[in-house]
């Protein structure tokens, strides 16, 4: 009798250990397979219930830490956090996936989500904001986004995410160049001519194919002229002339009261 009672208690405790509820309390996880939990999480994700989906994917990872569902769940956590507006958490999950599963066939997607999270989360910081000192804006997220997209297109040029990544890279290049141009202009207006010339020079060296290069040359001409550095001013002016359509240069030269390169004054 005592032996039967002990067996009964052991089985009861074992059964209880399997009855851990889901985060919403509606079901029980440990009775379900990794595939079933993954299916529930995907349903929540597709329905836009990102917070709930994240909890389910994380539960799957903790209960079944090995196998393809655990790997896929980590990718889905990155994506769900991105859609939920949690850029830092999305980047963290994507980085974990890249580090833990560098040979996974979907690692290109991890780079893509990482790039998207920073792109959507911070690109607005690079736009002009009235009354704000442009030197106080931090373009790091955009730089990180560019780096993630660049890694994707370099390592996986044939990835289905590569074409969109290239387009976003071009946008980021133009936005980052414009940010540097705002900073250079800010320094120029305040008489910090060396800083203005250096930041404008940075646009030419770092973002040579962006639309901001001509404006950067304009700033360099003004900064060097203000410092009396005529040789550097004339060099910048010559480069600018070569990159200015003849019709625009002629119109600028005939504008009364200003030299053609002094558009900022």
From TrEMBL:
Residues 31-237 form the Outer membrane lipoprotein BamD-like domain. Its main location: membrane. The keyword Nuclease does not apply. GO terms for biological process: Gram-negative-bacterium-type cell outer membrane assembly; protein insertion into membrane. Residues 1-19 form the signal peptide. One of its GO terms (cellular component) is Bam protein complex. InterPro entries: BamD, BamD-like, TPR-like_helical_dom_sf. It is a lipid-anchor. Gene3D superfamilies: Tetratricopeptide repeat domain (1.25.40.10). Part of the outer membrane protein assembly complex, which is involved in assembly and insertion of beta-barrel proteins into the outer membrane. Part of the Bam complex. Belongs to the BamD family. This is Outer membrane protein assembly factor BamD. It comes from Ferrigenium kumadai. The gene is comL.
């Amino acid at each position: 009798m005592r032996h039967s009672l002990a067996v009964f208690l052991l089985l009861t405790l074992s059964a209880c250990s399997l009855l851990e509820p889901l985060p919403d309390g509606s079901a029980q996880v440990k009775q379900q397979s990794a595939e079933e939990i993954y299916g529930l999480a995907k349903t929540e994700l597709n329905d836009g219930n990102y917070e709930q989906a994240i909890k389910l994917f994380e539960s799957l990872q903790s209960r079944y830490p090995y196998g393809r569902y655990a790997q896929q769940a980590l990718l889905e956590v990155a994506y769900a956090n991105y859609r939920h507006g949690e850029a830092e958490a999305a980047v963290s999950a994507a980085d974990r996936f890249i580090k833990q599963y560098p040979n996974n066939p979907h690692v290109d997607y991890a780079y893509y989500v990482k790039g998207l999270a920073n792109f959507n989360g911070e690109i607005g910081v690079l736009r002009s904001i009235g009354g704000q000192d442009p030197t106080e804006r931090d373009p790091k997220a955009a730089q990180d986004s560019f780096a993630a997209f660049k890694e994707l297109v370099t390592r996986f040029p044939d990835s289905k995410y590569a074409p969109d990544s290239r387009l976003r890279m071009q946008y980021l290049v133009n936005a980052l160049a414009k940010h540097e141009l705002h900073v250079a202009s800010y320094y120029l207006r305040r008489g910090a001519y060396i800083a203005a010339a250096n930041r404008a020079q940075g646009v030419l060296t770092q973002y040579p194919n962006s639309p901001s290069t001509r404006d950067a040359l304009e700033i360099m001409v003004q900064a060097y002229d203000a410092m009396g550095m005529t040789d550097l001013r004339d060099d910048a002016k010559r480069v600018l002339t070569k990159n200015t359509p003849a019709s625009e240069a002629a119109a600028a030269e005939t504008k009364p009261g200003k030299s053609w390169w002094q558009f900022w004054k």
